[in-house]
Amino acid sequence: MQQPEFEDNSSVFPLQRVLGSLSAYRWTALGAVLSSLLLTAAYAITPQLFRWAIDEGITDNDLKVVFYSAAWMVVAAIARGLFNFGQSFWAETTAQGVVYDLRNQIFTKIQNLSFSYHDQAQTSQLLTRVTSDIEQIRTFLSTSLMQVISAIVTLFTIATILLIMNWELALITLTVVPMSAFLMARFLQKNSKLFGQVQQELGNLNTVLQENLFGVRVVKAFVRESAETQRYTRLNDALLKTNMRTILAIRNTFPFIFLLSNIVSVIVIGYGGIAVIRDKFSLGELVAFNSYLLLILQPVLLIGFAAPAIAGAAASAQRVYEVVDAKIEIRDRSNAVPFEMCGGRITFENVCFRYPGATTEALKGVSFETKPKELIAILGMTGSGKSTIINLIPRFYDVTSGAVRIDGRDVRDFTLASLRSHIGIVFQETTLFSGTIRENITYAKHNATMEQVIEVAKTAQIHDFIMSLPDGYETIVGERGVGLSGGQKQRIAIARTLLTDYSILILDDSTSAVDAKTAAQIQEELDYLMRQKTCTAFVIAQRISTVKNADRILLMDKGRLVAQGTHEELMRTSPLYGAILESQVKQTIQT
Ligand SMILES: Nc1ncnc2c1ncn2[C@@H]1O[C@H](COP(=O)(O)OP(=O)(O)OP(=O)(O)O)[C@@H](O)[C@H]1O
């Protein structure tokens, strides 16, 4: 039975999930909130010190009170500095912790997502999510969230003090709060989509950038520099426009809030001034009240400034959790067993397969069975389904119907890790990682000895070339193996696979970039190795020599297995085989 899929939480308010992840950092988060409370207290006490200095010091000509209040003001200022530091330090520590976990979580998820997800997801969109979106979440936690918390605490503290000091004036002052809050809520409601759009367009821009970085040679070869620049500029324009729309939305809202606060300030000075003249209010109280007025506007403004960042973070969190919650199509069944021994009987039982999102089937009712130690070549025109066949053995995709079995057992019954670690596969496209050649060869077997590395490099016909490099096996290759020819990269990839503990070997057109003579040498070595070590080997090859050597050839045509047999058998029975071979002979003569 298939394990239940991940619970789809994407509908849950994404920021709520971000807040939920704070529980792992509760102590640092508590430190930040406590610092924020103390900071508010240090702010709230300062106007009272002013009132004391004016009413009991200056008015009563008491220098001692003036001196003491000044001294306490210095203490309050130092305390504000300390608590401010504490608040930002703890908030940043918490935020860094949360995004550290999130980054790891999303990376692990990307590692575990099936091929079908990666077929459809754009690499640059994923990159934007791991970098820019996560950064938005960090800013939300370290800055915006703290701004909102300290704003709320300040608002309640100051409102209480104002109400105690003069409730009438306090009520006038406090009207600014709901009015500003209304403006802010309207702003957020209207513009939340806009912030998501900014991130989406940033991702689009990164797509073009990434394609151009990877494909720089193609761009230059086809003299498409200016066309690519135009494409990038068009997307850059779109991003600029959306960014300007966000800025405009912010600018449209904030002047109203500032206007409101100025009006209230004027009312306080007017109303309070009259009260002082009529002796209903002391001068110190008016000064303190006015200072509090500035303090009470601060929270509203803080929430205002935090609002766009919160809207942006909500959109970012949504995008990040979309990846975290993405369905893993291919995973272990609950009762999966480890794959231990390979007898060599691989069976395709009426296999049909359709790629996710595709309209036609890539494989249609394919059935065959291999014998132990058999070398199987798969041949067919381009797009006939050769790679698809071998993709189903390590479960890069699962069959749409039918079954793939190893020694009679459905591949879906095995744990993925054990199944894949027994299958050595060399892909059509070679990917090397940044690091030394030795590190690349030992990618899946770090503890391999240098003798083992040299042995596989010799089999892959790359040892002599490596030794001719000044740093030998310690030569550093670029992130995509730049600096090596296509054939050299392919041979390093073959060595990398040969070093693993495979028992089924799959070579997907993996000597296509190697010259015919070297390919024949590799093939000779591999034939020997396959018959010794592997239980079954599959080779997708265009070269006649490889095909001739195979024990059996599977001939594919438009997703169907149309013929199978040895070279001689197929020469006799299959016109398609003859035609493919003929075209290859022509190709070989031409090259
Ligand atoms: N990831 C994918 N998503 C959708 N369709 C795919 C995908 N990969 C391959 N296909 C389609 O499935 C069919 C078989 O593709 P496959 O890669 O197996 O052919 P192939 O015989 O290995 O071709 P080639 O010799 O060119 O490598 C093709 O029509 C192809 O367009």
Automatic annotation (TrEMBL):
Species of origin = Floridaenema fluviatile BLCC-F154
Q: Which InterPro entries does the protein's record reference?
A: AAA+_ATPase, ABC1_TM_dom, ABC1_TM_sf, ABC_transporter-like_ATP-bd, ABC_transporter-like_CS, P-loop_NTPase, Type_1_exporter
According to the record, the segments passing through the membrane are 24-45, 65-83, 145-164, 170-188, 254-277, 289-311
Name the keywords, alphabetized. Answer: ATP-binding, Membrane, Nucleotide-binding, Transmembrane, Transmembrane helix
Return the PROSITE patterns for the record.
ABC_TM1F (PS50929), ABC_TRANSPORTER_1 (PS00211), ABC_TRANSPORTER_2 (PS50893)
Annotated ranges, domain ABC transmembrane type-1: 30-312
Q: Which CDD domains match?
A: ABC_6TM_YknU_like
Q: Would you say which domain of life the source belongs to?
A: Bacteria
Q: Sorted alphabetically, which PANTHER family does this protein's record hold? A: ATP-BINDING CASSETTE SUB-FAMILY B (PTHR24221), ATP-BINDING CASSETTE SUB-FAMILY B MEMBER 6 (PTHR24221:SF654)
Q: Which GO terms describe its molecular function?
A: ATP binding
Q: Kindly indicate where the leader peptide sits in this chain.
A: none
Q: Where in the cell is it found?
A: Cell membrane
Q: What is this protein called?
A: ABC transporter ATP-binding protein
Instruction: State the membrane topology.
Output: Multi-pass membrane protein
The answer to whether UniProt assigns keyword Protein biosynthesis to this entry is no
Q: Which residues form the ABC transporter domain?
A: 346-583
Oxidoreductase: is it a keyword of this entry?
no
